[in-house]
Amino acid sequence: MYINVLGAGLAGCEAAYQATKRGVNVRLYEMKPDKMTxxxxxKNFCELVCSNSLKSDRKDSAAGLLKEEMRRVGSLxxxxxxKCAVPAGGALAVDRDKFSSAVTNAIRSNPLIExxxxxxxxxxxxxxxxxxxxxxxxxxLAQKIVSLCGNALHFFDAAAPVVTAESIDMEHAxxxxxxxxxxxxxxINCPLNxxxxxxxxxxxxxxxxxxxHDVDVQNPKVYEGCMPVEVLAGRGMETxxxxxxxPVGLRDPATGHRPWAVVQLRTENAEKTxxxxxxxQTNLKFPEQKRVFGMIPALRNAEYVRFGVMHRNTFIDSPRxxxxxxxxxxxxxIFFAGQITGVEGYMESAxxxxxxxxxxxxxxxxxxxxxxxxxxxxxxxxxxxxxxxxADFQPMGANMGILPPLETMIRxxxxxxxAYSERALKELDKLIHIL
Length: 435
What we know:
By secondary structure, the chain is an alpha/beta fold.
């Protein structure tokens, strides 16, 4: 008795692990290292491409609630993430190489998982199958999925550059977290005054962008959550100052005042030898990235270990084709999990894989599948992607807006979020025994 899992990303690894926890053998297919996508560089599983941040870790935030739910269910990825954490204020960020290695080791050492390193071009029909090939599904398999689902949507995703710590000019930067939360060593802040910001803005919006050779539509969508910084800047001079360059909650010790704008750098690894530009996903040509980002005083002599890149993502029209348990409406032996279903974010993908793995194992054992209550964040995401009333389906990350309203109105935002979280965790605790 076994199941197939296609893809060893966050959703696939979590799905495989959850199935083995329930006594089911897994054949895990992964095309790396023989075939790599444009965005992937490592041969390890669960490579974090865009950022090393897993978002907020506060239980009274949507992202933090999701992670706490996953911890309580017994997530492999959350266990690895907690062990590989690096300073990031109130967020959970990881040393991406150590995280990927930890997950890879756990999967490869699991006696119930057989890793098969080859590209899958056909959807297997020999067993229950979880398709977790992610937003960079290879062309051959993507075509099979399109044929199976009747529709697929495409959009473009971007990653931020990473620079060496020693190349950051700390005479023009300072260490601090917004409002002092999470300690003063969580972020390196690169301030700009009004004149510096306006010059930077002008060069950013006019900089030359890298051409796209894998465009299959004339006007591809760009998902809001990973909007290239130059595209975001094109919406207006002040957009960045209310977005990734917002200076609120920060005070420059050199001036005693809040900067006009600030670029935050977050550590990439536990040794703090590399930092990424937070919110600076980009599709500028590599020389243009070095030139334009070099206008930020603290980054004038920055050395780049990775430039920002942009790549195609694919997701299915889940509300039309998936049940809330992740299974295909037309074939109960096939489950989908991860970003290909339209959940947006690392842990959102992993939570989707968690439930797909649990349900694939249950179906393998002739048990009824389960969907958590939509009062939980895991359940709300599952309900969102399978809501047939959705007219214009777009990727969605964890947020309090997808949870049902509270029974009692609470005015304060933080208090209201805390009440949502308290209700969700109580609901989850009542349901864990069925998983």
